[in-house]
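Chapter summary example: a protein plus guanosine-5'-diphosphate.
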Amino acid sequence: MSNCAIVGINWGDEGKGRMVDLLTEKYDIVVRFQGGGNAGHTVINQYGKHALHLLPSGIFRDGVVNILGNGVALDPQNLWQEMQGLIEAGVPLTPENLMISDRASLLLPWHRDLDELEEARLADKKYGSTKQGIAPFYGDKNQKKTILAGELFYPQELKVHLADIMEWKNLTLTRVYGACGYTAEMLQQWLDEYCEKLKPFVRDTGAFLRQAQAAGKSILFEAQLGALRDLDYGIHPYTTSSNTLAAYAPVGSGLPSAKIEEVVGVVKAYSTCVGEGPFVCEMSGPEAEELRRAGDEYGAKTGRPRRVGPLDMVATRYGVQLQGATELALTKLDVLSYMKEIPVCTHYLLDGEEISDFPFPTALAEAKPQLAYLPGWQQDISAARTWQELPQEARDYVNFIEEAVGCLITYVSVGPERDSIIIREKTGGQK
Ligand code: GDP
C-alpha cells in the first residue's frame, strides 16, 4: 500500500490530529518527523479527549507502530509526562507500539530557559514562542551541540559529551543573560528522572523502517503546525524552527528513500493563527470573538486565544502548492453554521494591486484582504455523514474552496469525533 503524509496547509491547528486518528486505521506505522511539544493535536476517541504534543496520533490504534523520528525535538521530560497521561487513561504504551529514533536529538533542560530568557529580552518584539525550547533546540542541533537519544546507551561517553555542552551553554546562560548555569548533578537528575524511563523505547528506527518498507508496510507521516510556519518557506521570522512540509517527511522520519504517494493537506474552514506575525485576514471585535467561541479556538498547549479570520485563499493556495497536496481535508465546517453569510479572503491588495500569489513575508504587513461573501446554511450540519446530507450552501462553500485552491477536497469534517466525517469520492465534480 502507498505511503501518506498528513500535513497542515496553513498556520497550524487545522485539525491534523483528528485526521491522523481517523486514517491510521489503514496504516501499519505512524511517524512524527519534525517539531516538538510546542503545539498540540487534539484527538477524541474511545479513550476520551487527549491533547497530544509529541506522541504520534496513531498511538490509540491497536497494532499500529508509532515512531518519533530523528527530525523531532525530543523533550524527555515532556514526553514522559505525556506518556504518563495516556497510560493513566488506559492506552497501552510498549516498546512494540512506541519507538523513539536513536538519532533523535534530545531537548536539553536549558533549551526551555533560553527560550524564556530570549522572549523576555525581546519584550514587545517577541516572536510569541510557546517557550518550550524549540528554537534554541534546533539552533543547537544545527550547531551539533545536542545529545542523540542513542547516546543514552553509552553512559561514560555521554557524561563527557554532556559536560562539554554544559560548559559551553553555561557561558551563554550566565554571561549573556545573567542567569544561573547548570551543574553535572542537575543533569544527572534529569537523566535519571526522565531519560532512563525512555530508554526501553529507543532503538534504530531507521533499520526498522527500512525493513518495514521492504516488507511492503504502509507508513503515515504526521506533521506538526502548517506550511506557513515552515522554516524555509513560511512567514519568516514567525515560523517554527523546523520544516513542516511533506517533502521533509522522509528525511525527518528516518526513511530518506521513502516515496509519499498521497499528501493529505488539512485546511480549516476558516483561518486561525497563534502568536505573533503577519495575519492578513485577521478579524477583530465581536465578530472575531463569536468565531473564536464557536470554534473553541484556544491553544491546546498554552490555552492562548487564537487569532481568527475568514479562510484565506491566497495563503491556502500557497500552502497547497508547498505541501504538494494530492487531496484536502476540510475541517470544522460545522463551526460556520451560525453565519448568515460567510466571508472568504479571495485576494490581497498590495501597493494598489490585487494579487493572488502569496507575497514575500516582509510585504505581508502592508497587504490588505479582499473579501467575498458566500451564503451561509444556518442549520446544524454536525450529523451529516454523506455529501448529499449537507445543505446546498455548505456544498457550494466546499466547491468554492476546491476551485480556488486547485485541489480536491475529499474529506469534510463536521465535528471533532472520529466518525463526524464525510468522505467524498476522489473523482471530484460532485456539486
Ligand atoms: P492540529 O494541531 O492540527 O491537530 O489541530 P488542533 O488539535 O489544535 O485543533 C483542532 C481542534 O478542533 C481540536 O480540538 C479538534 O478536536 C477540533 N476539531 C477537529 N475537527 C473538527 C471539526 O470538524 N469540527 C469541530 N467542531 N471541531 C473539530
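Key point: Residues 8, 12-18, 39-42, 44, 300, 331-332, 334-335, 413-416 surround guanosine-5'-diphosphate (CB under 6 Å).
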